[in-house]
Amino acid sequence: MPDKKQGSRNKSKTRYQMPLNKKSPMASKIGPPQQQGNQDTYTDVQSCGGAVHIDLCGRMHTQSLLGTRYFLILIDQFTGYTTTKFLKQKEETFSSFKEYKALAEKFNQRKIFKIVSDGGGEFVNNCFKRHAKIEGFEHSISPPYTPEHNRVAERGNRLVLEKARSLMKQTRLTDQFWPEATSTTTFLLNVAPKRNGISPYKKWFNQKPPVSNLRTFGFKAWVRIPLIKRRSKFESILWEGIMLGYENQASAYRISRLQDKRVDDSCSEWEDEFHDAVEGIPQRRIRIIGPRHATLITGDVSEANILPYQRRAHQTVEASMIPNSYQQAINSKDGNKWKEAISKELENMQKLGVWTIRDKIPQDHPIACTWVFRVKEDNQK
């Protein structure tokens, strides 16, 4: 019943006294609920693949340069090694998990015995059920609205997002580059040591992490353009970019072009300088990587490889006399010399058994042949 005597001066406000039986065990349950801290209830695993915790993060408000809006996080419980995969749609979750499972099992030579996820539709579906039954692994699903039951993936998800957000703010990049920040954060978490002093990278790969190759996210870099991709001799040999992550376990770097905001994958090695985006930090000389299919330069530059000034004009004239095709070679003024050289080359190939002459059959696919000609100096062998 309302007790107006204990109400406020405003008669429209009334305090209601509810009867409460203090002896009832439910009396302490109907008050304001407090979330109890969950203790570790996961079964200890003794090897890689014993349990993999997975979670999906998204949908991101900003679409990345490659059109992705989600990322799937997968954490191996034994090593703590984290993997992130970027998706355009939720429907790609199952295929991304299958790809991870195949690579992890082949790398570790061990089967995945258990996966832990929430009850989202991207995990609880016929594809996952059928795959778990065929492959023989357990799929543990946390109860609804209890992220603490999937705390390994949830904690990893939150940690990746927080650190990736810090990288984005530090470099002042647009939100389109969130996958690069997320991928870099994942790699940094893997190489950082845990409480026992061992990093997830060390336990997963059984080798020390490449911490000497780490660089500050967002450094300005100058990348050398491969000779084969230069359109003229007076074109710039460098392009300006920003370091946005790592490739091949930090043996290479991902560089974004400042002009077109395109991120190039790394392949061949070059020596160049990184310039800090923050003033006051000294420049450091490191290896950076050119675009895919670039020419790999392995020789060191020395004075012996540089032509003297007197021979440069002679070298230029000789280069202009080098034929570009077979017909041009045999029809030139040195055609007899080229024919003799071609005959010797063919004779050497026959001695080495480079090919076998036989009749052509319909199933054969001819391969194009290209002759490459060069004028050797007197001191060249």
TrEMBL record:
Catalytic activity: DNA(n) + a 2'-deoxyribonucleoside 5'-triphosphate = DNA(n+1) + diphosphate
GO cellular component, one term: nucleus
PANTHER family: TRANSPOSASE, PUTATIVE-RELATED, TRANSPOSON TY4-P GAG-POL POLYPROTEIN
Composition-biased stretches (Polar residues): 33-42
Species of the source: Austropuccinia psidii MF-1
Region (Disordered): 1-42
GO MF entries: DNA-directed DNA polymerase activity; endonuclease activity; hydrolase activity; metal ion binding; RNA binding; RNA-directed DNA polymerase activity
Domain of life: Eukaryota
Domain Integrase catalytic: 28-208
Key words of the record: DNA integration, DNA recombination, DNA-directed DNA polymerase, Endonuclease, Hydrolase, Magnesium, Metal-binding, Nuclease, Nucleotidyltransferase, RNA-binding, RNA-directed DNA polymerase, Transferase, Transposition
Pfam families linked to this entry: SH3_retrovirus
InterPro entries: Integrase_cat-core, Retrotran_Ty1/copia-like, RNaseH-like_sf, RNaseH_sf, SH3_retrovirus
Name listed for the protein in its UniProt record: Integrase catalytic domain-containing protein
GO BP terms, alphabetized: DNA integration; DNA recombination; transposition
